[in-house]
Specification:
The complex is a heterodimer. Chain A is built from 22 helices and 29 strands. Chain A is an alpha+beta fold. In chain A, the strands form 6 sheets. In chain A, strands 6, 7, 8, 9, 10, 13, 14, 15 and 16 form a 9-stranded antiparallel beta sheet that branches. In chain A, strands 20, 21, 22, 23, 24 and 25 form a 6-stranded antiparallel beta sheet that branches. In chain A, strands 4, 5, 17, 18 and 29 form a 5-stranded antiparallel beta sheet that branches. By secondary structure, chain B is of the alpha+beta class. Chain B: Pfam families: CcmE.
């Protein structure tokens, strides 16, 4: 039965949400316009608020409807069918909600209504102008999921997630036979996204995206209502909050990439990654100019420009990642949904309106009477903000290359520009220097900010400088840092830690509430140190020196064989030396759902196309029995874990389980790393190639051997010896009765450094003969006991061979990566402290302003720090 | 001149420097004929070439060579560019997953000793998650 009610409800609610957003925009606009009577304004405001509440309810309803469809596995809906499946665990059902474009728009819309509601309750005096901008953004966003086709014009507005499968794919042949066909199971979620970071990363990132709207709305509201300076106080805590959440979101993405993708790092300068870091850099610059914007008119003007730029850049990045412009350039941008035009209108509307308003008001913005002094805090903060923007500009200029091509195309020329061949080197070339300078400024800037130094008294900076140089010299020598750019980055980062640390110690003694800035800067400096060591000094440990893989080509043999030899091949159960380690690939394991850890794949028989497996033996782990032989257990059918045993020189053994994901619908493998975490470094391992664990081996043609006892024969280049033929009581898979007889041959196969014993059996039962072959995956060999000849006393065997199981793996060491994670943590704490402080500041001022006029102090004290 | 104006000029200068340098680093999409010309002219810049894998009449991929047991970091195939020019491509890394399924391949690299030496391979495969749509994946050879 097709559950059409829920889909229709959802679709209807999207339309309601769109209409209420438009009405709320108009009503808030009327309320925000000066000129009407106070009563008029109040009426419009009350009306607008009620309409916005309806909008909130409608959006919540849409979210609920879509989740209901996915959660209940209504596969008649295209969205549920495409992005989820029956076997998906609950946690990931949530991720399939935002795996597709429509759902991720919905997530953004959802955050906006939450934030809008918070704003209405926390800030009545700014409500009308701020919410006008909010409601307008909501109108644009909901239009993206409207899915309405205007009749006559054949114009499609938005793409709805509530389409039925048969509406999306009406040509499927099955609908001719059964118009009410409902798929039994869905397509499932991309296995790479089945990771807990993918459950929390997108909501965090979209909350970050959504929060950038708040400073933007306040800036627009400030321009509109001519409260040219007052908007900063309520906007600043939100700007800090936004910078924090967006930063966390970006870093979570980086961490997910580190843990799950096998490009071996947390940052790849991928266009999609870039398009979220650029707005973040500009936002951080905006936070800094906002802090000084109430005292300095140039900073005030800059704050307007930067807060507007942040939001426009968010829209631009949305456009880039969703319009298909980046399709050729990025690994993980969305494909085009046919919404590029709509997104472009969205982007252009806000760009034009915001810039137009700013230009219109520019003349009435205040000017500084005198030049800012080189020894003032404003000067140094300003330089820092400028560098942040330039850094962002450089990233943007390169990332936009595909956009230049499109623009050129629109004008009829062909540019044929491609992204730099070596992107990482290209970006690092600039960003390394930008960040060296920025991080120095955080140290100097803090000293000026707290007035520890000034004109004629720069001495206070000498001690931190001296200490920093000493520490850097020690680290450079000890760690063997040789490249000049790394030396510079390291020294500057250490200087920032020392300088900010000094300031921190000083202010913590006074009022720890004010130490957010210093802590945040220390966090950034630590992160840079971590990034420097973990990426520039990554060491490949999986250097192959087995001699097996020496290629014919000259380039391979030159340079000590090292450069191109960074993968090693492991054969099943065959130890191989890698650097200091002795490596052995032990087994392939599968992941059961309700049993901790992994179990050997040979213990279970996986039901094809399902998430169940049948236990081939009792499942006992750590002395605890979970299942008996023959039980059906639930597993994650797409995940295989390659048990790789590392033996250290000391004899200590640890095991890593890099993962390979196999999707039956996809036929390929996706590899994820496993990481051995130590305090000073990570050992990062992933397999880059495996023999397909699901595929049936392709056996060679049968070879027959007839031999006597203790004869030697050659199979697949191995020496084999028939040691004995003995009577046996037990044959796997056969129940022996009283009159049955069974024998097994004991065949010894000699490998280079190990012996294997293969025991095929021969059963005579009710005058019938059964032959039970034995397979050795290590040798890639199957031996079957064919015949016993009582006259000659000879035995016959048939042998098939196949490719031996192997994996190709790569291992790297990433030194000091924990400093990066520690820095992130410190950064977040700093941001939280700064946000809380600025929010308290705002609340104090708001409450003061709402007091009756008579009791108000004449002029609020200008805040200096 | 006011300090702020000098400041502004410096920023504009830096921004122009960034743009010029970006244009210098930017690669281009060319075909193999052009790639060979560039190599002959001693132009050592990395370039992008778009092409398809060489297939026989039955649609099977031909002239693809990969023997992991001998060398997992040596993969050779033949790419046919949009002008139908065939070229051997050497990729010194493991063969990318799903390579055989790719509809379109972008190789980034340069001509070297008569073969195209690829540093990076971008593939467009029919996506398994978004039916009928293409999905791009990227593979980079270890730096040499």
């Amino acid at each position: 039965m097709i559950h059409s009610t829920i889909g229709n409800t959802g679709h209807l609610l999207v339309i309601v949400a769109f209409v209420t957003a438009l009405v709320a925009t108009y009503a808030y606009f009327k309320a925000g316009m000066a000129g009407g009577t106070i009563e008029d304004t109040l009426t419009w405001k009350r009306f607008a608020r009620i309409v916005f509440y309806f909008h909130v309810a409608a959006v919540l309803g849409v979210v609920f409807s879509l989740y209901w469809i996915i959660g209940n596995h209504y596969f008649e809906y295209h969205y549920a069918w495409k992005n989820s499946s029956l076997s998906l665990p609950t946690g990931y059902t949530i991720s399939s909600f935002w795996q597709d474009q429509e759902g991720s728009f919905l997530l953004w819309i959802f955050w906006n209504v939450i934030l809008g509601t918070v704003l209405i309750f926390s800030n009545r005096s700014w409500e009308a102008p701020v919410m006008t901008v909010f409601a307008l953004v909501q109108a644009f966003l909901t239009s993206m999921i409207l899915g309405v086709v205007i009749p006559g014009l054949d114009l499609k507005i938005g793409s709805t997630p509530f389409l039925l499968l048969k509406e999306v794919m009406p040509d499927l042949p099955v609908y001719k036979m059964d118009p009410n066909f409902i798929p039994k199971d869905g397509n499932g979620l991309n296995p790479l996204l089945q990771n807990y970071w993918m459950v929390i990363h997108p909501p965090t990132l979209f909350l970050g995206f959504a929060t950038t709207l708040i400073p933007f709305s306040f800036a627009i509201a400030g321009l509109w209502t001519k409260k040219i300076q007052e908007w900063i106080r309520p906007a600043l805590p939100w700007a800090l909050f936004s910078a924090m959440i967006l930063g966390i979101g970006i870093l979570m993405g980086a961490y997910w990439a580190y843990e799950t993708l096998n490009f071996g790092s947390y940052w790849n300068w991928d266009p999609v990654e870039n398009s979220s870091i650029v707005p973040w850099l500009v936002l951080v610059a905006a936070v800094h100019t906002m802090i000084i914007g109430r005292k300095n008119a140039t900073a005030l003007k800059t704050s307007f420009i930067l807060t507007i730029a942040t939001f426009i850049l968010i829209l631009y990045s949305t456009f880039m990642t969703r319009s298909g412009v980046l399709g050729n350039a990025s690994v993980h941008s969305f494909t085009d949904l046919g919404l590029s035009g709509q997104l472009l209108i969205y982007l252009l509307t806000f760009t034009i309106v915001a810039i137009g308003l700013l230009v219109y008001r520019w003349k009435s913005l205040p000017n500084d009477e005198e030049e800012v002094s080189t020894y003032s805090q404003e000067f140094w903060i300003f330089i820092g903000a400028t560098l942040l923007c330039l850094s962002g500009f450089q990233i943007l200029a390169t990332t936009s290359i595909p956009v230049y091509n499109k623009i050129a195309e629109a004008f009829g020329t062909v540019l044929n520009m491609a992204l730099p061949a070596d992107q990482v080197a290209h970006y690092n070339k600039f960003q390394l220097w930008f960040f060296s300078l920025i991080i120095v400024l955080t140290g100097i800037g803090q000293f000026f900010w707290w007035k520890r130094v000034g004109k004629g008294k720069l001495q206070a900076l000498y001690n931190p400088l001296l200490i920093a140089l000493l520490i850097s010299a020690a680290v450079i020598t000890f760690k063997g840092v040789k490249d000049i750019q790394y030396i510079v980055l390291l020294t500057t980062a250490i200087f920032a830690v020392v300088a900010n640390g000094t300031i921190l110690l000083n202010i913590i003694r006074g009022n720890y509430n004010l130490s957010g800035g210093a802590i945040t800067h220390i966090g950034v400096a630590l992160m840079l140190i971590g990034i420097l060591f973990s990426s520039a000094y990554t060491r490949v440990v999986s250097i192959n020196n087995s001699g097996l893989m020496i290629s014919r080509s000259e380039e391979f043999t030159s340079n000590d064989n090292k450069e191109n030899k960074e993968n090693i091949t492991l054969w099943l159960n065959k130890a191989e030396k890698m650097g200091d380690y002795m490596l052995t690939w032990r087994d392939v394991r599968v992941e059961p759902r309700h049993i901790p850890g992994y179990i050997p794949k040979s213990w279970v028989d996986i039901v094809e196309g399902d998430f169940h497996a049948v236990a081939l033996k009792d499942i006992v782990l750590d002395g605890k029995k979970y299942n008996s032989k023959g039980d059906t257990i639930e597993i994650f059918p797409e995940n295989f874990y390659y048990e790789i045993e590392y033996r250290e020189p000391s004899g200590r053994i640890f095991t890593l389980f890099p993962r390979v994901q196999i999707n039956p619908r996809m036929g390929g493998i996706v590899s994820s790393p496993d990481i051995q975490r130590k305090v000073d470094k990570d050992l990062y391992t992933y397999v880059s190639m495996v023999t397909n664990p699901n595929a049936e081996p392709v056996w060679s043609q049968t070879e027959n051997f007839t031999v006597n006892l203790r004869d030697t024969f050659f199979v697949n280049d191995y020496v084999a010896i028939l040691d004995n033929v003995v009577r046996t009581e037990q044959v796997e898979g056969v129940t022996l009765g009283a009159g049955d007889a069974a024998v097994k041959a004991i065949i010894r196969v000699l490998d280079k450094d190990k012996e294997f014993v293969i025991t095929p059996s021969f059963v005579i039962r009710d005058r019938m003969v059964a032959r039970k072959p034995e397979v050795s995956n290590e040798l890639g060999m199957r031996i079957q006991f064919q015949e016993i000849n009582p006259q000659t006393g000879q035995f016959s065997f048939s042998v098939n061979t196949t490719q031996r199981d192997f994996i190709v793996m790569k291992a790297t060491e990433k030194p000091l990566i924990n400093i990066l994670w520690l820095g992130t943590f410190v950064l977040v704490i700093g941001f939280i402290m700064a946000t809380v402080r600025r929010f308290k500041d705002f609340v104090k001022m708001r409450n003061k302003e709402s007091q009756p006029a008579g009791q108000r102090k004449v002029k609020p004290k200008v805040q200096t720090v | 001149m006011k300090k702020i104006q000098i400041f502004g000029l410096v920023i504009i200068a830096v921004a122009i420097g960034i743009i010029v340098s970006t244009a210098g680093d930017a690669s281009t999409y060319v075909d193999f004929t052009k790639a060979k010309e560039m190599a002959q002219d001693g132009d050592n810049e990395s370039i992008h070439v778009v092409g398809k894998l060489k297939k026989d009449v039955a649609g099977r991929i031909v002239e693809m060579e990969y023997k992991p047991e001998i060398d997992p970091n040596y993969f050779v195939f033949t790419l046919v560019d949009n002008q139908n020019v065939e070229q051997r491509v050497i990729y010194k890394n493991t063969k990318p997953q799903d390579f055989d399924k790719s509809e379109q391949v972008v190789v980034v690299g340069k001509m070297k000793d008569g073969a195209f030496s690829a540093e990076k391979i971008l593939m467009k495969c029919p996506s398994k998650y978004e039916n009928g749509k293409m999905e791009t994946t990227e593979h980079t050879a270890t730096k040499s």
